[in-house]
Amino acid sequence: MAGNGYLVSACLLGLCTRYDCAHNRDKGVLEFLTAHSFIPVCPEQLGGLPTPRDAAEIRGGDGAAVLNGSAAVISAGGFDLTPLFIRGAEQVLLLARLAKVSGAVLKSGSPSCGLGRIRDGTFRGGYREGDGVTAALLKRHRIPVYSERSLPM
Questions:
Q1: What is the per-residue pLDDT across 6-31, written as a single tens digit (0 to 9) for each?
Q2: Strand 127-129 versus strand 103-106 pairing type
């Protein structure tokens, strides 16, 4: 894969794309990007969800399980958002392929972008091991995925 910069979770750049209309601006990510080109993405918005929106968590597994059909993304209000999360992940994958990116820097903990750690599906603030839907799809297609805690060297 040619190295043409990175996809980056828009919330890490300071854009108010989080479910609660806030952001997760990260100084380390911004410093890293001074030497790289990048494309901001929000898989949840690309999947068709509005901002603000209900919080969502994965029940029954992680992002890989969602892609395999054995887990679901559920909103705090009890709505199944699985198709929208999958569509958003597919849109991010399309962007990654079109731009021939070196990888993606995604927000940890997120049901879309989480890498190695996501919310536990109870809406009580707990975490468990696993990837979000977008992180899992990109990894499945051998696109390197990083978080704000594990930036590429």
A1: 999 999 999 999 999 999 999 999 99
A2: unpaired
- pTM of structure: 0.95
List pLDDT tens digits, range 36-76. Answer: 999 999 999 999 999 999 999 999 999 999 999 999 999 99
**Can you tell me the distance from the alpha carbon of 121 to that of 63, in angstroms, rounded to the nearest whole number?**
12
